[in-house]
Amino acid sequence: MERMPLHEALSETRATLAGFGDGAAREAQQLLAACLNVPLISQHTEPERLIDAKQIEKLRTWAARRASGEPLAYLTGRREFWSLDFAVTRDVLVPRPETELLVERVLHHGDELAKRREGRTTTSIQVADLGTGSGIIAITVAHERPEWLCTAVDVSSKAIAVATENARQLVAGRVTFRQGSWFEPLSDQCFDIIASNPPYVDSDDPVLKGDSLAFEPLLALTAGPDALAALHHLIEHAPRHLTAGGWLCLEHGADQGMAVRQRLVARGYAHVVSHRDLAGHERVTEGQWLPDGNRTSDLTSG
């Protein structure tokens, strides 16, 4: 029966992942750790540790799939976000660290609204996460602010199933899930904050066929030939579902900040501003819905 020491398995995996260039060594270490449950430190301290034929076969299969561009998260079925461990499948987008900025903005606005309500009968903040996918936005907000009421919507029943299980595991089910397209399943319900990371890639964009996105659900990546279609829909219809002074917070492409700001201002939102991610890209744009007569025409890149 074939056996192989860790250092040889690592070298072989690194060779398979040579297409990652300078990142091949790191990719190989992460893959081996995830596939064989061998911590990174053990790969250095126990290089002669032997793995058996079954483990070798699994490692080679995973390495080939990763070399073809399949995200590691789809191989492991897990992805960390906001230090929480989320289940993921090929029915949902792989959670990305850029979305943490969107969560930060939701928490910021919710905290500010809660302060203004101190002493009132109704103080709980209501948040809607539209296009929830694996549920990372709604679940993370519910984890950080247990007293808030979070509702998550997705058109995909498979995505809802993934998100519901994540909520059960991480926040004891303290998120309400509804299946449907954007605002349709919300009836006349209003929220203090509506957040979304909608599809914002043009359906003709070659990036969709690239290794980084080819394995992810097309429905979550593009709304069609107009890359801004979903964002425009959310901006147009959110006021009907926002409380007075409520906020719409949107994640978008790195080059779409100005277009989103302009659309928000044209629709009548106040205090419109974009925020940059750690890479310096405009990634989240927000606007506040105020009663008629109290709106301004701010248009700011933060």
SSE blueprint:
Layout: E1 4-5, H1 6-16, H2 24-36, H3 40-45, E2 50-51, H4 53-67, H5 72-76, E3 78-81, E4 84-87, H6 99-116, E5 126-130, H7 136-144, E6 149-154, H8 157-171, E7 175-179, E8 191-196, H9 218-221, H10 229-237, E9 242-251, H11 257-267, E10 270-276, E11 282-289, E12 299-301
Parallel strand pairs: 5-6, 5-8, 6-7, 8-9, 10-12
Antiparallel strand pairs: 1-2, 3-4, 9-11, 10-11
Largest sheet: 8 strands, mixed
Strand order of the biggest β-sheet: 7-6-5-8-9-11-10-12
Instruction: Give, in order, the helices and strands.
Output: EHHHEHHEEHEHEHEEHHEHEEE
Q: From the coordinates shown, what is the CATH architecture of the largest domain?
A: 3-Layer(aba) Sandwich
Q: Please give the share of residues in helix.
A: 25-40%
Principal-axis shape equals elongated
How many DSSP H or I helices?
11
Class derived from helix and strand content: alpha/beta
What does this structure look like?
By secondary structure, this protein is α/β, with parallel strands linked by helices. It has 2 domains: 4-68; 80-301, Vaccinia Virus protein VP39 (Rossmann fold, 3-Layer(aba) Sandwich). 38% of the residues lie in helices and 21% in strands. It is built from 11 helices and 12 strands. The protein has helices at 6-16, 24-36, 40-45, 53-67, 72-76, 99-116, 136-144, 157-171, 218-221, 229-237, 257-267; strands at 4-5, 50-51, 78-81, 84-87, 126-130, 149-154, 175-179, 191-196, 242-251, 270-276, 282-289, 299-301. It has an 8-stranded mixed beta sheet with strand order 7-6-5-8-9-11-10-12, with helices on both faces. A two-stranded antiparallel ribbon has the order 1-2. α7 links the parallel β5 (126-130) and β6 (149-154). α1 (6-16) crosses α2 (24-36), α6 crosses α7 and α10 (229-237) packs parallel to α11 (257-267). The protein starts with a strand and ends with a strand.
